[in-house]
Write a structure and sequence with these properties.
This protein is of the alpha+beta class and about 240 residues long. It folds into two domains: about 30-95; about 100-240. The protein has helices at about 1-30, 30-95, 230-240; strands at about 95-100, 105-110, 115-125, 130-140, 160, 165-170, 185, 190-195, 200-205, 215, 220-225.
Length: about 240
């Protein structure tokens, strides 16, 4: 009987143990254990925002350093503006124009050789280069027409005068042998300048002084094209 009771007692204890184990498993499945693990997970989650906060602070630090990094870019951007301004200055002051009375000085002087000829000297008094197109349109006194040009004197290129430089043309005043007609003396001269087409006068005319006694002209009156050098201006008239 004693052994039977002991056996029942052990069976009852074993059953109790099984029941307790089942209860433990049930408790775990009910979320009791999950709640504990959730608390641990909650601690990790709480740590995550703090890590996120640190991450959010990093861009702020990056932003505070970006102005110093952007500063050289601002300096670089300002340089092209200065370069652009410098590039405009030569374009606005160096563009060539047409030579005419307002930007040149014209001098008329009789030549010793050949006789009955006069040299016109035009000097650029402006701040930009200018072009002397074709030939001078000279008007002595109240003449209604300008004299013709000596075609053999045409240069290969348009005469260009930098500031301070001079161009030249010769005027054949009268026939050296006296064969010209309608000879008379004039005491005033106006020199007009041609544009690129060569058919029109542009700008203001020049009024160079003539000798006090005036100059003698006749129907042989002719002019040369503008020349870059004085010698070139005298060559055509020397061949007449």
């Amino acid at each position: 009987m004693s052994s039977i009771r002991n056996s029942r007692t052990r069976l009852a204890g074993a059953a109790t143990t099984v029941v307790l184990a089942a209860l433990c498993l049930t408790a775990c499945n009910d979320g009791t254990g999950v709640n504990d693990e959730g608390a641990s997970a909650g601690a990790y989650t709480t740590a995550s925002p703090s890590a996120g906060a640190s991450a959010s602070k990093a861009p702020a630090a990056g932003t505070s350093s970006s102005p110093s990094a952007a500063q050289p870019a601002t300096t670089t951007d300002s340089k092209p503006a200065a370069d652009t301004k410098a590039a405009k200055d030569p374009a606005s002051t160096g563009k060539p124009t047409t030579c005419e009375g307002s930007n040149t000085k014209t001098v008329a002087a009789p030549l010793n050789r050949p006789l009955n000829h006069m040299l016109l000297t035009v000097t650029n008094t402006g701040s930009r280069p200018c072009f002397l197109y074709t030939y001078p349109a000279v008007r002595f006194g109240e003449a209604q027409a300008v004299p013709p040009v000596i075609e053999d004197s045409k240069p290969q290129a348009v005469v260009t005068l930098n500031p301070g430089e001079s161009g030249y043309a010769s005027v054949n005043l009268s026939a050296a042998d006296g064969s010209g007609s309608n000879g008379h003396t004039e005491k005033s001269l106006t020199v007009y300048f041609h544009g690129p087409s060569g058919n029109e006068s542009v700008g203001a005319g020049a009024h160079p002084s003539l000798p006090a006694q005036g100059v003698y002209i006749d129907d042989s009156l002719k002019v040369t094209y503008w020349q870059q050098s004085m010698d070139d201006a005298r060559v055509p008239v020397n061949r007449l």
